[in-house]
Amino acid sequence: MDAPRLFELANAAVLPGWAMLALAPLRREWAVVGARVVAALLCGFYFSLLVTGLAGAGPPEGAGFTSLEGVRLLLSSPPALLAGWVHYLAFDLWVASWQVADAPPARLPHWLVLPCLALTFVAGPVGLLIYLLLKAGRLLKAGGRGSI
Asked: Is the alpha carbon torsion for 93, 27, 116, 138 positive or negative?
């Protein structure tokens, strides 16, 4: 299967995990487990992309993690770019599942978590930052009990 088709499949595969998290108050534990299963499957897909798609061709000359140009070269082939995208899909979903699991002990209602999930979906670190700020605000309001 070609990289564009695998990209479409990965994008479709992640959506049930996000839907489960959005509907988490109905069955929070099952939603978190379901989303984490989807994330784990994406991790397996990512691993297979690394082994099959990138190992055979090898990285281009100058590719690496020590410069912006090196990273651009690492992601210059469709299989490498697809692997990078699946990496984002898996990690963002995992972070979102943590937010949903962490919210009840942090006394954050789900309606406050929903915007964090939306932001995590489109801009992972921003969604995590907003969640952490909301959680810190709740902890401060509660007199500092608990941990971020």
From this structure: negative
What average pLDDT does the structure give for the chain?
A: 90
The total number of structural domains in the chain stands at 1
Taking every pair of Cα atoms in the chain, the longest distance, rounded to a whole number of angstroms, is 56
The closest alpha carbon to 45, from 110, 90, 81, 107, belongs to 90
Reported as a pLDDT band with limits 50, 70 and 90, residue 57 is low
Domain that holds residue 133: 3-141
Q: Give the residue ranges of DSSP H helices in the chain.
A: 3-22, 28-48, 68-74, 78-102, 110-141
- Asked, for residue 148, whether it belongs to a domain, the answer is no
Residue 119 domain flag: yes
Q: Is residue 146 part of a domain?
A: no
Q: Is residue 73 in a domain? A: yes
pLDDT over threshold 80, residue 49? yes
Please give the backbone phi and psi of residue 104, each rounded to the nearest 5 degrees, phi first.
-60, -45
Express each pLDDT in 90-114 by its tens digit. 999 999 999 999 999 999 999 999 9
